[in-house]
């Protein structure tokens, strides 16, 4: 139950939350923020339940908290919970000022991608740990269907992580009003988000054919 809950929560739902906020351009900003926050909250719930399912045994938490996998898992849950709380207070509840949110946003994006990568790395160490236990305690052959299944799952998680991160950081293309295509790089508007965005509008003088440029704020 523990591996299933953690993969569904932190990797599948967490990845969907990243993609929902990044690529649902047809939805309003408030709807995308609500979807992102809800999916991240559901992922955190699955993760906490998965931790409880692992540590609810009679030996207690300390008996299971010894391996690199468990240490990485606790760190991942702590970062995920911190991210959700900071995101809720700063970007949803808007407890911070506009300039503070603009300065915080690049770090929030970085921490989110870092936590997602850490979740995948933690899952990989968990798969390796489980496979090692099967080899030692149950005499599982090295070349077996179970080993191939674990390796395939680990490879699939790595590929999924790469696709999610690529989708999150790749440039977005949007069509402007005149039909041209503009490229918007992820995080570019966040670094200077506290400054007023401006647009250069080219206007042509119909009488003499000269071009006049003026800066107009959005």
From TrEMBL:
Chief localisation class: membrane
Cell membrane is among the record's keywords: no
Keyword set includes Cell membrane: no
Domain Cytochrome b561: start-end pairs: 1-169
Membrane topology: Multi-pass membrane protein
Keywords: Electron transport, Heme, Iron, Membrane, Metal-binding, Transmembrane, Transmembrane helix, Transport
Any Pfam family the entry gives: Cytochrom_B561
GO molecular-function term, one example from the UniProt record: metal ion binding
Compartments it resides in: Membrane
Cofactor requirement: heme b
Transmembrane segments: 6-25, 37-55, 70-92, 104-128, 148-169
Highest taxon above the source species: Eukaryota
GO cellular component, one term: membrane
InterPro entries assigned: CYB561/CYBRD1-like, Cyt_b561/ferric_Rdtase_TM
General function of this protein: Two-heme-containing cytochrome. Catalyzes ascorbate-dependent trans-membrane electron transfer by utilizing a concerted H(+)/e(-) transfer mechanism.
Protein's UniProt name: Putative transmembrane ascorbate ferrireductase 4
Species: Cocos nucifera (Coconut palm)
């Amino acid at each position: 139950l523990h591996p299933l809950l953690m993969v569904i929560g932190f990797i599948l739902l967490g990845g969907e939350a990243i993609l929902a906020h990044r690529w649902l351009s047809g939805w309003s900003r408030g709807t995308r923020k609500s979807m992102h926050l809800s999916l991240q909250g559901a992922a955190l719930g699955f993760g906490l339940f998965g931790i409880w399912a692992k540590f609810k045994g009679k030996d207690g938490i300390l008996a299971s908290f010894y391996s690199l996998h468990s240490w990485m898992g606790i760190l991942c849950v702590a970062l995920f919970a911190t991210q959700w709380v900071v995101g809720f207070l700063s970007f949803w509840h808007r407890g911070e000022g506009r300039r503070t949110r603009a300065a915080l946003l690049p770090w929030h994006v970085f921490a989110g991608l870092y936590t997602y990568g850490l979740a995948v790395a933690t899952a990989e160490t968990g798969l390796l740990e489980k496979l090692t236990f099967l080899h030692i305690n149950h005499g599982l052959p090295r070349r077996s269907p179970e080993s191939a299944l674990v390796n395939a799952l680990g490879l699939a998680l790595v590929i999924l992580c790469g696709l999610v991160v690529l989708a999150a950081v790749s440039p977005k293309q949007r069509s402007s009003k005149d039909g041209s295509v503009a490229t918007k790089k992820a995080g570019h508007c966040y670094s200077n988000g506290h400054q007023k965005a401006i647009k250069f509008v080219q206007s042509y003088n119909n009488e003499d054919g000269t071009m006049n440029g003026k800066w107009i704020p959005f």
